[in-house]
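Troubleshooting: if your tokenizer reports a length mismatch, compare your output against this known-good record of 887 residues.
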Amino acid sequence: MTDQTRVNWRGVAGTFLEFFGARDHVVVPSASLVPAGDPTLLFTNAGMVQFKDVFLGREQRAYTRAATLQKCMRVQGKHNDLENVGPSPRHHTFFLMLGNFSFGDYFKREAIAYAWELVTRQYAIEPSRLIVTVHTSDDDAAAAWRAMEVPQARILRLGDPTNFWMMADVGPCGPTSELHYDWGPEHCSCHRPDCSVELDNGCLRWLEIWNLVFMQFDQHADGTRGQLPKPGVDTGMGLERISSVLQGVNDDYGTDLFAPLMDRLQRILGHTDRQREAHAVAYRVMADHGRAMTFLMADGVVPGNEGRNYVLRMIMRRAMRFGRAAGLTRSFLAELASTVTDAMGDAYPELRRQQSFIESAVRQEEERFAQTLTGGLQRLEELISGALAASRRELSGEEVFRLYDTFGFPVEMTRDIARERGLTIDEAGFARAMEAQRSRARAAQAFGGAGDDRRYAKVVRKGGSSEFVGYTKHAARARIVALFAGGEAISQADAGAEVEVILDRTPFYAESGGQVGDTGLVRAATGAAEVLETHRPVSGVIVHRCRVTTGRLRVGQPVRAEIDAPRRWDIMRNHTATHLLHQALREVVGEHARQAGSLVAPDRLRFDFVHLAALTPQQRDAVERRVNEQILADLPVRARWMSYAEATRLGAMALFGEKYGDRVRVISIDGYSRELCGGTHLSRTGQMGLFKITSEGGVAAGVRRIEAVTGRGAYDLVSKHASILDALSKELNAEPEALPGRIKRLEDRVAELERQLRTQLRDRAVDADHTLDREDGLKVRGSVVAFSDPGQLRTFADGLRRAAGDRVLAVVGSESTGQVVVLSSDPAIHAGRFVEALTKRHGGGGGGHDKMGQGGVKDPSVVRALVKDVVTASVLDDLITAARKSA
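Known-good structure output:
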């Protein structure tokens, strides 16, 4: 390689992976940013996440050495770098982590020798620039560094927690050793005469480039530590940081990983170099968040209000806010997404595959935030006006937080606008409200397995395992390997007992990948048990949760395991259908319509997919028709085991949120569909019979859900609909083909009668001409009527609302009884609270829900004045404010 090629980010990463590949490490592809099958993490935040089960002893791999370039996200929980992004030239939400791993193979001496050779020879970093740290108790690591001829003065001993790492409160843990790069005294930012890595004060002179974790202990719940039987190595080197060293820039954002983004932002803003430097914090935030946003969406995350989706929306809005602060007045995130794809799409093809969808979704989110910002400014103005009217000089912290939480309105904007009006905000109150929300929403970050998992892992360590034979068999001879009851291992279980049974071989499919587990029977010579559910808590073990129905079961005895075959057939029909549905959706609405979750049960299937809008009736029909065409074609369904690399070369789809090993099972439906899947399937699509969609709707921002039935479920649905159709035909005295026209004529007749009724009611109105059309688009209609029936009042108010269009406030008062009805189609005006405020002005009361309110006054003669209030601009503003304030 040329020097230039060697130090660009691709060359830096390539050198690392080639170095370890040449030393018998398997180069493993990066896992998704969404951890597969791990509810304890919002995002993959370290290179070791995909190997967690290996370190915990739950999973065995075909190799004992690995190297990766892992996509990572640190923005929530224990590892949260968000607030440092922007002010710091070294912190990121999204970053790329190089790492090498040993699973019970080499340990400290070899790991340190590899690290020193790579850094000083392959990367040619001057050894005198390097400082290493080891744990105060770790003489072995210190000796290993001395063996590399690192001077004693450059080996620093630090204690907990700096140089000790724990996977969780219990479980694998061990000392660490870090490599730090010395940029030189001219880069010192702490200005202390004793400036050192030991101070750990964020001084820009020192840059941690590599952390070597030596997992050698097992932390017990009582605080004691035992030695792990197979110590391991887990290292992490940030690609951004090592690139900054090799490219000679003491700022990650000056590397070629960020240069295209920073330059694109400068063109968008039209800034000079001096202006760009003046807005350095905003540039860093926008570049970092733009990159994180793009990679998250390529891995299936879409903006929303919960969990990962909320985090994505939050960083996008943070980028937008800093963009406004830097002078941007238009949308820009889609252009950043395009730049990320141009710069990194060759190395990460998922960016190119999802480019169109990502940019479309980003534009929608920017438009949504622009609308949110308008609503937030209006609400803030109400808060400021209220504070000034009450002679308060401070905005409530809870109100400021509610503005942030409800409208997504940045607190920095609130602070700036309040300052312009001579106000401050209750910073402590806001911080308390924010921390309360964080406490509620904070995702659990613990790595350790539950105690239940440990007992199953112990079975594996003792040589016990479960061979799954259910792809080809519905019944099998087996032997009981272990029994558990109440979390404890037992030797036998009697009739009536709830027990977990582990067999050495089983036809029972364990719940996985959205497919429910099998049920059935386990029979022995001495007794029998009903299998209620089946799951796989750790790799290699299938657990059958059973109820012993007769006799007794004992560890070691032979049994016959038999699944509920008709139930399995129904499950297989629905599972094969999800594969056909997945491909049909991609054909009809686009390749971005990838799976985002599923449920395969005997009675139905549920399929979540990424898409920004509801399916049109035509799209829904087209999807259903394509699936049924493949069923009628009676296509063969084949399963093949192959390496993950071979499967991806063949174009097999890996599904969102699933975890795959080195060898994977590929389900191919005669060239129509090809997916990685461990579930059970039909042998031909014709065995499905029929596919019918029962519903389609949204479950989160950018995620849609289809529910459907096949086989017996589809037959039952069609039969039910036929019965309903027959009943309607008889009731309306029309053939089924004529029913739509017959129903349409009846609807038209009802509408005409309602129109006539409204006209008659209007003719009886005393005064129906009060109107007000505000500049903000709100239309107010008020009437005083003579009749008193509450139903007629509501019908009349509804007529006013419908006639006026969108964003209408309709108020009708009866001069006969003093009753008042309010209908609101403005989401910002709560009808119930509005009528309460309105009638209270005239000695009455009322209430209701957001769209309709009812109330009254004791003196009917004031109804005219009451309705007049509604179309009096100043009074109306007070009423709207009162309604909103009481929310």
